[in-house]
Amino acid sequence: MDPSPSSLPPAPAFLVHERGVPAFGMYQGVVGSLSWAPLKAPPFKHLTRRLHHKRWQYVAFAHEHFFVAAAVVDVGWTGAAFAYVFDRTERRIVAEFSATGLPGRRSRIEDRAFGDATFRAGKRCVAFRRADSRLEVTVNAPELKLAAHVDLSEPGPILAAIAPANWLAHATHKSGALPAAGFVDVAGAHLSLDGAVASLDASNGLLARDTRWRWASAHRPGLGFNLQAGFMGSAENALWLDGELFRLAEASFDFDEAAPLAPWRIRTSDGLVDLEFRPEGARSDYRRHVIAESRYLQPIGTFHGTVTHPVSGEVRRIENLVGVTEDHASKW
């Protein structure tokens, strides 16, 4: 029987049980080891699993006046990174870069939630460094420079989800609102991260060549959510409310693909989330290689609407909650 909404079980120590079976489920906490090595799989999938191993580490800093995001990605046969700064007053990206390179040489990601990750290409570097109870994030590039740390000393409930996904299995860890400090330099301006709220995404799985998802994430102290429709189904849909973590049902994303900066409607089938997302701008990227293709759109904006406490039934009104949505399709 599934646990009640307010009693997610603690995260297991490993992704895979001793019998070689994945520890599928939604948990609270951090999985100790993110190794898929013991996973049993058909022989032909064992031969190609290295190419299907996808990992990424992502951080977002939501501020009253700007939004900053950075990521390091390893998709098995190539690595990548991106970073951008979105000015919420001017409603535009004021600095960004993205780059690709060979995994192992340019891109390295530790098999640990919120651990070390690095991408280097020429003068551009994105790095995550775990130092005890803080995660240090740096971006050094001609376009922008970021020096920040995220406080993990009292992270509140961490979401850990392990699911079949669309090939063999996938695991993700998501944080709620985390304290952050630091700065970002862009276009001659020095922006302090004081007052910003950080959120983290550490994902690690064995995914199909054709993988698609839609995603929504927003957090502030005492309230936040993570919603996805696509390769993970509802396995990572969760609500943070007053220091507790709750499971959510399937999510629907209604928006005009021809006009993605028009309002989005995002709801869950259990009726606990009913939101309108109002984009202020977006980052997009389209890449087509000989054997791969990626289409990425991440609008930045605010959420408005209601969330309902799964136990008490209390309806909470949400206004101007800063966050992102995403429409992503990859052949990788």
Automatic annotation (TrEMBL):
InterPro entries recorded: DUF2804 (IPR021243)
Lineage: Bacteria, Pseudomonadati, Pseudomonadota, Betaproteobacteria, Neisseriales
Organism domain of life: Bacteria
Organism: Crenobacter cavernae
Full protein name: DUF2804 domain-containing protein
